[in-house]
Design a protein that fits this description.
66 residues; alpha+beta; 3-stranded antiparallel beta sheet; 26% helix
């Protein structure tokens, strides 16, 4: 049987916000996470996903030649 932790427990374990973990679950970035009603269950052995957000403050703009 698989063991799961809550978003709150993952937040403490990975030192990131509950809201960010909820977003990662919604984006299917945490392998094996399962939604039960309104709550997410995260496998105990799940790895913290890498942060793919832009931190430089500079956004890459797609320039399409016209």
């Amino acid at each position: 049987m698989n063991e799961y932790i809550t978003i709150k427990e993952a937040s403490q374990k990975w030192n990131i916000s509950i809201r960010r973990i909820n977003t990662l679950c919604n984006e299917e970035r945490i392998p094996g996470c399962v939604k039960f009603g309104m709550a997410w269950a995260i496998p105990v052995d799940a790895e913290k996903p890498s942060d793919m957000r832009i931190k430089s403050g500079k956004y890459v703009k797609n320039n399409h030649d016209k």
